[in-house]
């Protein structure tokens, strides 16, 4: 996966650490074929729609304070959130919203749908509100893909910088805030300017197939170039090191034939088709990593025992895997992890 790749690059040669890659490169083939109106999506016919389709585990009291402040200062506005599929979670969130002075009539839960149906309804939102410090990942990509402006904050950890990174790659740094107050003011400025919202939407839609964010062929070529740079850097080393062989860049060798891939002794293949689905227990990618554990010099990959869904579940997976599968970088990786 790309986070692993970037860590290896950082450890080898700091000159590469500014390379523009994403842990889960967005797919430009996501369908945009369906349409739906507000009534069909479960929304009232009028009212500005704030949306957040992040998992509820990403929310916190400070975030709800900001969002409810926005709702209170924007008469008739709505907060559209993904249905947590749990009566307790719905009740808890509803209570927190109501305690902050917002009528529950303005909180609308969206059921989970197939991707094409979800993207169609997501386009109905006016402004996407990002969570912090655990920011949007795929959720941010979805919003930008359908042309909905996403307001985010940027932090100092991996999970607090993903959405800002996506916006930067897409050419919309204007939607990134440094702190809560700037976040609030940026959202309010959009609320008060329908013309600016319309302009942003038009620019987002125009950028869909022109910006680096959704340029899959460009991403592939850049990834190949980075592999070549790694290979050339390796060739300049004087110490003994097993050659790095890039096998089947477009393929997915897990788990049965991983043993035949010399590259996989150093890292999980960055271009694995399951890379975007993350490191959750029971996923195909976990099978890949477990297969890697059986290789010589491997150590236990600590992330395998962590709890699914926790914000720190992937902290920092990249260094964990470097430590696990490249003994030559073990000292550096362990130092960074600790």
Q: Could you give the topology of this structure?
A:
Blueprint: H1 2-12, E1 49-52, H2 61-72, E2 78-82, H3 87-99, E3 107-110, H4 115-122, E4 127-129, H5 138-146, E5 150-153, H6 162-170, E6 176-177, H7 180-191, H8 194-207, H9 216-236, H10 284-293, H11 317-325, H12 330-337
Parallel strand pairs: 1-2, 1-4, 2-3, 4-5, 5-6
Helix pairs in contact: 1-11, 11-12
Pathway: Protein modification; protein glycosylation
InterPro entries: OGT, OGT/SEC/SPY_C
Pfam families: Glyco_transf_41
How is this structure best described in words?
The structure is a single chain. The chain is 40% helix and 7% strand. A 6-stranded parallel β-sheet has the order 3-2-1-4-5-6, with helices on both faces. Helix 1 packs across helix 11 (317-325) and helix 11 (317-325) runs antiparallel to helix 12. With 338 residues, the chain is an alpha/beta fold. The protein folds into 2 domains: 2-21 and 215-337, no CATH class; 49-211, Rossmann fold (3-Layer(aba) Sandwich), CATH 3.40.50. The relative contact order is 0.13.
């Amino acid at each position: 996966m790309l986070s692993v790749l970037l860590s290896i690059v950082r450890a080898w040669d700091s000159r590469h650490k500014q390379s523009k890659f994403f842990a889960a490169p967005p797919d430009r083939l996501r369908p945009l074929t369906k349409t739906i109106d507000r009534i069909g999506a479960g929304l009232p016919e009028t009212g500005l729609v704030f949306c957040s389709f992040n998992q509820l585990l990403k929310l916190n009291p400070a975030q709800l304070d900001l969002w409810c402040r926005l709702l209170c200062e924007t008469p008739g506005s709505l907060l559209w959130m993904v249905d947590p599929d749990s009566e307790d979670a719905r009740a808890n969130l509803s209570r927190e919203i109501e305690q902050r002075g917002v009528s529950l009539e303005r909180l609308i839960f969206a059921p989970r749908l197939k991707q094409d149906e979800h993207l169609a309804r997501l386009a109905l939102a006016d402004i996407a509100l990002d969570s912090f410090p655990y920011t949007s990942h795929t959720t941010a990509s979805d919003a930008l893909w359908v042309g909905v402006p996403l307001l985010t904050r940027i932090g100092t950890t991996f999970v607090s910088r993903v959405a800002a990174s996506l916006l930067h790659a897409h050419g919309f740094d204007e939607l990134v805030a440094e702190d809560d107050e700037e976040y609030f003011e940026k959202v309010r400025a959009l609320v008060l300017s329908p013309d600016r919202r319309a302009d942003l939407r038009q620019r987002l839609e125009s950028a869909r197939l022109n910006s680096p964010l959704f340029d899959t062929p460009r991403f592939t070529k850049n990834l190949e170039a980075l592999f070549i740079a790694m290979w050339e850097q390796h060739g300049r080393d004087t110490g003994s090191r097993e050659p790095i062989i890039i096998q089947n860049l477009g393929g997915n060798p897990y788990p049965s034939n991983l043993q035949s891939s010399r590259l996989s002794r150093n890292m999980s293949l960055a271009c694995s088709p399951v890379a975007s689905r993350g490191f959750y227990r029971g996923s195909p990618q976990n099978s890949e990593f477990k297969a890697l554990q059986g290789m010589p010099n491997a150590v236990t990959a600590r992330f395998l025992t962590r709890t699914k869904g926790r914000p720190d579940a992937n902290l920092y997976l990249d260094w964990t895997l470097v430590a696990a599968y490249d003994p030559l970088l073990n000292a550096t990786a362990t130092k960074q992890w600790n």
